[in-house]
Amino acid sequence: MYDNEHLLNWIKENPRIDKAIILAAYWMSEPYFAKQFKDGEEVEEKESWYSDDFDFTEEIEKRYCNGFYKTNELECDPKNIELRENYDKSADRTLIDSDLKRIREIPEVMFEKLKGKRISPIDHKAYTDGLPNIYYLRIEEIFEKYEIE
Fold first, then answer.
1. Does the model's pTM come out above 0.85?
2. Cα dist. 138→24, 124, 149 in Å?
């Protein structure tokens, strides 16, 4: 699945997590790819490397549609989720990979913008490898001091 599989599973299984976080995780998982498969068995047969990701995406969708996540304090617009540095903010997340041949559709509720508190985008220049620069530089110093490679 992902490098941070345990964290993502905790988020997915937590009914108190904000719907905006779940919706962002869903779209960042590129659900269109999952929709080209009928079910998990077909994924295992054709693209076994994708099984964990498929299950993650499908479980979020099912729980979201069934009202498992109730908290909505944050804003999320599926059409404008910044994924990485230099992300094309004009790109619509809901259209990426939409040219894949799908046999199932994404439920309409997954496209709906959530109202709430807007969180400012991350300043990617302030981070290196996911760590605030101050911590990253300190770790580098320790590695150099103790000759750790």
1. no
2. 31, 18, 15
